[in-house]
Amino acid sequence: MRRILLLIVLSLVFACSSKKETLINYTNSQIEYSGRIDSSKTKAAELYWSGTSIKINFEGESISALLKNEKGDNYYNIIIDNDSLFILRPDTIKRYYKLASKLPKGKHTLEIFKRTEWNRGKTSFYGFKLEGNSKVLKKPISKKRKIEFYGNSITAGYAVEDLSEKDSPDSTYTNNYLSYAAITARHFDAKYQCICKSGIGITVSWFPLIMPEMYDRLIPKDPNSKWDFSLYTPDVVVINLLQNDSWLVNMPENDEFKARFGTKPPNEKYIINAYQQFVSKIRKHYPRANIICTLGSMDASKKGSKWIKYIRKAVDHLNDSAIYTHVMPYKKSVGHPSIKEQELMAKSLINFIKENIDW
Asked: Which DSSP helix (H) or strand (E) runs through 259?
């Protein structure tokens, strides 16, 4: 009899200690996705690009996300109620990650923001789990403004948090959230999309792929995976490219130089035309967008640079009143832009948009 009573007590304790769980599949319509995310799969939403994010409004004591990363080398900012909590590094095993706990009663907002670049592998998101008296709330009202960026390591936020200024390739230090691009989008409360890759150029890159070949992809490494441009129509498009071209066209011994140009570097006409053709492709997809052709903040943007001239000539040839040129401040320090330098770039771009574009 004593044993039976003990079992009853233990059962009651276990029942009281267990928490009510609410499972939310990645297909739930109240989850807000930003960026080029592949949700065509039957089991998960797959994240590749810098700055892609997942956002949800909810009530509950705690929230977890079911994730799996291809290489275990991607980092995410976890932001709850607009306060950045910590950095998450999902591993290669599919499992739940506790993102917030012991939350007060009421409405909460959680965002998972991708800091790192697509070469770090894809991340599969399967859904959320809420605990306690919980429920999913309606997703935020869609933002009125939309902005899109095409860029290289500067736009990616490469090594922005490497305070030693050694430009460490460790993905820990890359943070797209602190890039001028993401800062600009947040300033205008605009929906954000970012197509970028460290080392990429218009005519040549540090690897075989160039931006005109990558810009229209859903899955970055797959040439057959095409993005549906009708899914996202930006009001403003910002193009910040040619920094890598400015170095590589002077490196005839580089393998990518040889693959693209043979033995002779491209002349001014070739470079201007290549840039012009890329901008024309963007214009074809977005006939009503304001397009800003910018450069900065590394040495291609310093005073007197011929690369500034190339961009201006290309834009002049297009003869389009909604295509602008803007040069962001040249950073005189070595390496990639620091947090402070990214903020200065953002300030420059924000002011230019305020002064020239009514959106």
From this structure: helix 255-261
